[in-house]
Predict the 3D structure of the following.
Amino acid sequence: MSLEVDIDHARGSFRIAARFSAAPGLTALFGRSGSGKTTLVDIVGGLVRPDRGRVAVDGQVLLDTERRVFVPSHRRRIGYVFQDSRLFPHLSVRRNLLYGRWFNREAGGTAAGLAPVVDLLGIGHLLERRPDSLSGGEKQRVAIGRALLAHPQVLLMDEPLAALDEARRAEILPYIERLRDEMGVPILYVSHSVAEVARLATTVVILTDGKVTAVGPVADILPLADSGDGGSVLDATVARHDEAFQLSVLTSAAGELQVPRLSVPVGAPVRAYIRARDVMLSLKPPEEISALNVLAGRIAAVEPGGGAQAEVKLDCNGAALTARLTVKSVQRLALAPGKPVYAVIKSVSFERS
C-alpha cells in the first residue's frame, strides 16, 4: 500500500505546495502551527478540493485536477482521527465502533472484524459505556477503532494527542505504535511535538510556510526539524526492567541506557530522542555524578551553532549523538574531530513513556 501526494492550493494569502509519497508505517507531517499540515490531510481526505494536484493510493487515483477526477470523501477508503474524538454521545462505544462499517459498504463486506480491533486497542471493557463516561485517552482509542472498522487504505491522524494531558498521552502512545507496526497501511500523522514524532514516525515530512522542505527517515530528518534545540534519535531494545528503582535498561549501538520504567516487554524495540542541550561532554570517565547514562564516543565534527554556541557531533560506536556546548567549553576542552570523549546524558532526556 502506498500514498502519493502532489498538490498546490491557496487559501487567501496562504499557499501550500507539497509533493511526497508515504509507504506503510507512520509518516509524520511536522511543522509549526500554520504551516499547512491540517490543510494537507484535509486534501488527502477529500475535505478540501485543491486548486491543482494529484492524490493516489496504490495507483488508484482519488484526485487529479488535470483529468477532473475527484472522489468525494465518503467514497474514499480513508480513516480520519481528529484532535477531538467526535464520538456520537447518544451511542454506546460498541455502536460508535460499528458505525465505521457504514463507510466500508463498497469494500465487499471485508471490514476488519470488531473483535480484532477491540483487542488491538484494549477497549473490550468499554463496549457498553457511553462516551461521556470515558477519559480523553479512552475516547481517542474508540475514535481510532471506528476509523479502523472502515477498513481504510490510509489513516489520517490530525494531532490526536493535542487535547490530552501527559498521563493520557502516555496511555495512548503504545496503541498508535501498534497501529504503525501492524496495520500495513500508510498513516499520515500531524504533529508539532518533537517527542511524539521521535517516538512514532518512520518517515518525517517537514512543512515550513506551506512548503515541503525535507523528507526522509526520522533519524535523519527530525534533528533538522528541531531547530530550537537539535538532537539525536537512538534506536534501542529493552534489555530488562529494574523494578527496585522503576527503571528500564536499554541496549543500543551507542551503549547501555537507563530510563524511567517503560510499559513495554523485554525485547521490545524503542526509540529515544536526546536533545543536544541535555548532553554534556567529559574528557575522562565521570565519577560520582547523578546522571545515569554515560556513553563513550569520538568527536566526528564541531560546527558553529550561532552566537556563543557550538554543536559537537559524536560517533558512539556507529550511533550519532549531538551535544550543544558553548564555544568557550569547546576551546577549553580542545575538542576536535577524532578526540575521545564521554557523553553524559540525563535520564529525563529520553522521550519515551
